[in-house]
């Protein structure tokens, strides 16, 4: 992978000059994680900042019984691991590779030095943290006030807005999640997720194929929320 070319397309570093990118390359290391491997666990010390080059990761918390809740799914050009570097506390969640995932890592002291030299980076990170907090608040609201059908409707709407593609039939969502992962994002069992998706399909709200969902009537989904 051409790391410099990749970094130029990362919003976090879009304002860097070529000279600044060259200096950034000196502190970047590349690492690959196989599918289902743990990148770090909750309570681990936070020594590195991670930037996703390819693949996907899930940010999770687990109960003592092993039940999993997914806090977020992150994609290429998104970053994680910054919280522990900023506050010095252990990792607050576990991060797992959903597929083979390549990342750039920056060691803690190098990362903090980078922030001191480029205060605009801190503002961009703060903006991202603010957006993630808003999503977390929305997720809490969803869990508190919506039934299972409403939760799935809102999740599909959010995915469509973030990553959907307009097609003739409606909005296409690439199905990058298992039914279990979809349910874990909103605290709904796999069986209930399958049942509600099937119900939406029978009502003509969406169609389901092996690798994607087409939302045909997003306004009706919005009415379910």
TrEMBL record:
SMART domains from the UniProt entry: cNMP (SM00100), HTH_CRP (SM00419)
Residue ranges annotated for the HTH crp-type domain, each copy included: 146-219
Highest taxon listed in the record's lineage: Bacteria
Keyword Transcription regulation among record annotations: yes
Alphabetical GO biological process terms: positive regulation of DNA-templated transcription
Entry keyword annotation includes Ribonucleoprotein: no
Any single Gene Ontology cellular-component annotation: cytosol
Domain Cyclic nucleotide-binding positions: 12-132
Signal peptide (from-to): none
InterPro entries noted in UniProt: cNMP-bd_CS, cNMP-bd_dom, cNMP-bd_dom_sf, Env_Response_Regulators, HTH_CRP, RmlC-like_jellyroll, WH-like_DNA-bd_sf, WH_DNA-bd_sf
CDD domains: CAP_ED, HTH_CRP
Keywords: cAMP, DNA-binding, Nucleotide-binding, Transcription, Transcription regulation
Gene Ontology terms for molecular function: cAMP binding; DNA binding; DNA-binding transcription factor activity
Protein name as annotated: cAMP receptor protein
Source organism of the structure: Dictyoglomus thermophilum (strain ATCC 35947 / DSM 3960 / H-6-12)
């Amino acid at each position: 992978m051409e790391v410099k070319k990749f970094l130029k397309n990362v919003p976090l570093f879009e304002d860097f000059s070529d000279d600044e990118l060259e200096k950034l390359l000196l502190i970047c290391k590349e690492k690959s994680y196989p599918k289902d491997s743990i990148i770090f666990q909750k309570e681990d010390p936070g020594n590195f900042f991670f930037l996703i080059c390819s693949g996907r990761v899930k940010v999770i918390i687990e109960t003592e019984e092993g039940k999993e809740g997914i806090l977020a799914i992150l994609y290429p050009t998104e970053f994680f691991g910054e919280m522990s570097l900023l506050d010095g506390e252990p990792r607050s969640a576990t991060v797992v590779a959903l597929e083979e995932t390549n990342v750039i890592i920056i060691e803690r002291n190098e990362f903090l030095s980078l922030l001191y030299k480029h205060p605009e980076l801190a503002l961009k990170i703060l903006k991202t943290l603010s957006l993630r907090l808003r999503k977390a608040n929305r997720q809490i609201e969803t869990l508190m006030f919506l039934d299972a059908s409403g939760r799935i409707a809102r999740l599909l709407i959010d995915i469509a807005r973030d990553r959907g593609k307009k097609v003739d039939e409606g909005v296409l969502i690439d199905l990058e999640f298992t039914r279990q992962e979809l349910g874990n994002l909103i605290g709904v069992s796999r069986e209930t997720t399958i049942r509600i998706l099937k119900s939406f399909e029978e009502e003509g709200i969406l169609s389901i194929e092996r690798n994607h969902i087409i939302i045909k009537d997003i306004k009706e989904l919005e009415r379910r929320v």
